[in-house]
Design brief:
With 83 residues, the chain is mainly α. The protein contains four helices and no strands. Helix 1 packs antiparallel against helix 2.
Length: 83
């Protein structure tokens, strides 16, 4: 039951985030106000941050433990200049 609740919470958060980002081009093209566009981008960025934190809470500590392994896989072991 708890696992299903977490899954639904993550799905709802992802849908809210997707909707927020889909509103950004709509605000850009349908509104003459720059403030509306900036508000849409800000709201989308905040919902993305919330989605990341909900994902971390749902995934638990393993998300943080495996981040280096995931990053190595994404970069194929390449190191950056500053590291």
């Amino acid at each position: 039951m708890i696992r299903e609740t977490r899954k639904y919470l993550l799905i709802v958060a992802a849908l809210v985030c997707l909707t927020a980002w889909l509103s950004v081009p709509a605000a850009y093209f349908l509104s003459d106000s720059r403030a509306v566009f900036i508000a849409a981008v800000t709201a989308a960025a905040i919902t993305t941050e919330v989605l990341i934190w909900i994902g971390a809470l749902v995934g638990g500590w393993t998300v943080f433990e495996k981040r280096r392994k995931i990053w190595r896989r994404l970069t194929r072991g390449r190191q950056t200049e500053g590291a």
